[in-house]
Description:
Two copies of one chain form a homodimer. By secondary structure, chain A is of the alpha+beta class. Chain A contains ten helices and eleven strands. In chain A, a hairpin with a 2-residue loop joins strand 4 and strand 5 (68-75).
Amino acid sequence: MRAEETAALRGLRLFEGIAEPTFTDLVAAGYLQFFPPGVTLIRASDPADFLHVVIEGVVELYAATAGRETTMELVRPVGAFILAAVLSDQVYLQSARTLTRARILMIPAERVRRWMAQDAAFMSAITVELARGYRQAIKALKNQKLRTAAERLANWLIIVAAEQGTPGAVEIDIEKRVLASRLGMTPENLSRAFATLAGHGAQTRGTHIDITDPAALRAFANPDPLIDGPE
Amino acid sequence: MRAEETAALRGLRLFEGIAEPTFTDLVAAGYLQFFPPGVTLIRASDPADFLHVVIEGVVELYAATAGRETTMELVRPVGAFILAAVLSDQVYLQSARTLTRARILMIPAERVRRWMAQDAAFMSAITVELARGYRQAIKALKNQKLRTAAERLANWLIIVAAEQGTPGAVEIDIEKRVLASRLGMTPENLSRAFATLAGHGAQTRGTHIDITDPAALRAFANPDPLIDGPE
DNA sequence: TCGACGGATTGATAAATGTCAATCCAATGA
DNA sequence: TCATTGGATTGACATTTATCAATCCGTCGA
């Protein structure tokens, strides 16, 4: 792994403040692998053998039941996923696949659990990360239960515009059908939601959205820090 | 607190295996209080000052935005709630109110954080509990995104029949409008969902449901351990 | 015993969302 | 350059869910 990537890894909340030997060993024990797009990394109901860290590319966490499927989360660098299953030595609740070419660091679950017991700072970092993930999931549930599809899209636009550092515009870098699934709707419905937002300050043209009237968009979206806040 | 209640508290996953002095001090530091029904215990966006433990009664966790409200979870004895906010010293994402007369043990957040840093077993128990809560939230999100209202009700019936130890029947001990909100629908829609299930092996009469044809109910519900499993 | 109250149910209707089918369109490779 | 391909969009329609109003019904207190 390149030095700059090791440094980026160090920046993970999960590795914040942990002892150098712990970090070094965890990384050394990990397998760093390239994957092409569309590869299934883990399958729901499999035992959690590895903690996965996305070094490069985009990974989709998804879930399915009774022939239906939905996107649960998109993980980008540098982000870890499926921590909870690894910790309690349980099966995965979600499946994961690469959306793009991706580089993934896979750390054996057993090694994570061992260091957790030995390095108090690591344990503490894990607790913080778990609490964050938990709260994120609660927010996602609120988002889904309390808002319509168009409102979810509007709030997503506001969040992503901020993340991308372009208050007046959003560039979509994933397929719209994946975005639709993440936002809990069908692709057709997403198209219509975009059309609805055209009347509320957001003009869509392909993968580019111009937020021409931020105030109108916010009025429609009703952003709520207890749902949309980054934390 | 009565001895049997202290014993019940000890049975909480959160206090499993922790040192006696830790447990004793946490309980001693806590305020044990009675509340009548309908009392708001905590409000979303307030700072998390206490870890709450339900000793007796039923507590509803709920969330609201833009004039809409939804029930997130029902907490029964002996159960702790809003652990994640307490740990990271953040605001609550959910509000809580008593549904019945209730007895609540409130442990100062600061005390929880202090013992967490000093008692490795406590920290470990917290991690396990957090992971459990996280996974529970993921399951709730899958339930909401992947199922229709009637399916959610059917699966809820199957779960609760097992919990109540009566495979052929379910007794509802909360208001139906609260149940409707928990399952992500309106009270009217819940009534109709019950009517639908009458054709799939579940006969409702007031607060009592007879599961006359378990196989038919399961066929309709499509229970999935990765959503409905107790874990 | 009788009202009164609040939640539950039912019916009618509207809004939101999903499904199916037919293009449209942009990226890709021959 | 052009044909192919897969995702995106649009229209028509079905299903699901919510809303509004009326009524039912069990509980509780006078």
